[in-house]
From TrEMBL:
Pfam families: DNA_processg_A, WHD_DprA. InterPro entries: DprA (IPR003488), DprA_WH (IPR041614), DrpA_SLOG (IPR057666), RuvA_2-like (IPR010994), WH-like_DNA-bd_sf (IPR036388). GO terms for biological process: DNA-mediated transformation. Residues 85-293 form the Smf/DprA SLOG domain. This is DNA protecting protein DprA. PANTHER family: PROTEIN SMF (PTHR43022). Coiled coil: none annotated. Residues 320-374 form the DprA winged helix domain.
Length: 379
């Protein structure tokens, strides 16, 4: 369970988290030196001087018991929203995350981490992804979600959002790691996606409430994304991007790194191609990931769930109920590769107006998606 009352220990954790100038690594050094958050809070100025690397601002704030805001105010704001905190050493602290060198001592959460989150994969990539990159990501994460894999990402526009959407679409679980406070809606276009994740998954942040999404927060966020996961998949990314930072952190944490190949010489492909040259595992489907992570998890999951997922993945066939013969002819033409409406008309021997009406109907049923330029793909 998350902490349900403001006892001495919870108060001490929040005091440390709200201390100006005190980051995760400094907090870990303090805990190692004094043994508990309560002991850190009780420590005097002379004792604090013995801790290496502690910023002057943090030493003064701890000595004077000065926090960014009153602990009671932070606690009440969490309680009012039904949120909580999970702290290092708590029973519900994520198992994967506690194994990294610098785990966040305090996690703000909208719900509870679950045991099944042990089998988690991070999927990250460009904020300015291509339509095909977004489609691939949604399908990949839907396939992972159907197999019981928790999908972790960073809630940014582009690939991150597609990863969360794919997992939710399949009824799977997803964790969004924020680079701001839990109460800060960022990016704003993701407001509805945020609501769905709160209902069906988990929002996580190491930052106090009200913290804005500053640029320096995102590398810190990235270590949590990789730390929660058994491996990191990079779909589309430039050669210098936050996604490659996440991949590097994954390697440092002993996680698997995967990459999805793209078009040669395209700037969105340069990041994944660089990772592939450095030994990342190539990903063309969910099976490529499942084969790698299977030995890391219990045998009963690794074999039976993969088999069940493969059996159920065939998708919708031509016998989909409530579809006319014309609907089925259009589905037979479409695949994951974009197909222009003119070609659909030719191959199905249908008029343009009738074809567009049928495609709209299929899109409403969630079977196809329209791309810019009157191209369509099958989902």
């Amino acid at each position: 369970m998350t902490r349900t009352e403001l006892d001495e220990t919870t108060r001490a954790w929040l005091t440390l988290r709200l201390t100006p100038g005190l980051g995760a690594r400094s907090m870990l050094r303090l805990l190692e030196r004094f043994g508990s958050p309560e002991a850190v809070v009780r420590a005097g100025g002379r004792d604090l001087e013995t801790v290496p690397g502690l910023r002057r601002e943090a030493k003064e704030a701890l000595s004077r018991k000065r926090t960014l805001r009153p602990v009671e105010e932070e606690w009440e704001a969490l309680r009012r929203r039904g949120w909580g905190i999970v702290c290092l050493g708590d029973e519900d602290y994520p198992e994967n995350l506690k194994a990294i060198p610098d785990p966040p001592p305090v996690l703000y959460v909208t719900g509870l981490p679950e045991p099944k989150d042990l089998v988690a994969v991070a999927v990250v990539g460009s904020r300015f992804a291509s339509p095909m990159g977004l489609l691939f990501t949604e399908k990949l994460c839907a396939d992972l979600g159907r197999r019981g894999v928790t999908v972790v990402s960073g809630f940014a526009m582009g690939i991150d959002s597609a990863a969360h959407r794919g997992a939710l679409k399949a009824g799977g679980r997803t964790i969004a790691v924020l680079g701001c406070g839990l109460d800060v809606v960022y990016p704003k276009p993701n407001r509805d996606l945020r609501r769905r994740i709160v209902e069906k998954g988990l929002l996580v942040s190491e930052f106090p409430l009200g913290t804005p999404p500053l640029a320096g927060h995102f590398p810190m966020r990235n270590r949590i994304i990789s730390g929660l996961s058994l491996g990191v998949v990079v779909v589309e990314a430039a050669d210098r991007s936050g996604s490659l930072i996440t991949a590097r952190l994954a390697l440092e944490q002993g996680r698997e790194v995967f990459a999805v190949p793209g078009l040669a010489r395209h700037f969105r492909s340069s990041g994944p191609h660089r990772l592939l040259r450095q030994g990342a595992k190539l990903v063309e489907s969910a099976e490529d990931i499942l084969e790698e992570i299977a030995p890391m998890v219990r045998p009963s999951w690794s074999m039976s769930d993969v088999a069940a997922g493969a059996a159920g993945e065939g998708g919708r066939d031509d016998g989909e109920p409530n579809l006319s013969e014309e609907h089925q002819r259009i589905l037979a033409v479409l695949s994951e590769e974009p197909c222009h409406v003119d070609r659909i008309c030719r191959e199905c021997s249908l008029g343009a107006a009738q074809t567009m009406a049928l495609l709209l109907d299929l899109e409403m049923k969630g079977l196809v998606r329209q791309l810019p330029g009157k191209y369509f793909v099958r989902l």
